[in-house]
Amino acid sequence: MTAPNDSDDPQVPIVCPECETTSRVSLPDVADAVERHNAQLHDGEDVATVDPDIADRIADLAADDLGLLEEP
């Protein structure tokens, strides 16, 4: 996977259970890095992903920001 860069962008953990690897990729590069890893090493199958705990937390923050968690 892609090595972290020196920019100020947040670093997102990417995990691949099949390769038993974890790396951190700058936020703007996440989609490309995951897609490239899966294409090169897993015939395009969705094996490597954003760390599930981080993905869940981001989804919760987005839902809260959109008011989806508020009681009607």
In words, what does this structure look like?
The protein has helices at about 30-40, 50-65, and strands spanning about 10-15, 20-25, 50. The protein contains two helices and three strands; from the N terminus they run E-E-H-E-H. A hairpin with a 4-residue loop joins strand 1 (about 10-15) and strand 2. It has one domain (about 10-65). The longest helix has 14 residues, at about 50-65. A three-stranded antiparallel β-sheet has the order 2-1-3. The termini are far apart. The protein has about 70 residues and is α+β, with helices and mostly antiparallel strands. The mean pLDDT is about 90.
Oligomer: single chain
Please give the domain count.
1
Percent of residues in helices comes to 25-40%
Number of strands: 3
Radius of gyration: 14 Å
Q: How many DSSP H or I helices?
A: 2
What is the first-to-last residue Cα distance? 43 Å
Mean pLDDT: 89
InterPro entries: DUF8149 (IPR058462)
Pfam family, one: DUF8149
Keywords: Plasmid
Protein name: DUF8149 domain-containing protein
Q: Could you give the topology of this structure?
A:
Blueprint: E1 11-16, E2 21-26, H1 30-41, E3 49-50, H2 52-65
Antiparallel strand pairs: 1-2, 1-3
Question: Could you give a short description of this structure?
Answer:
The chain is of the alpha+beta class. It has two helices and three strands.
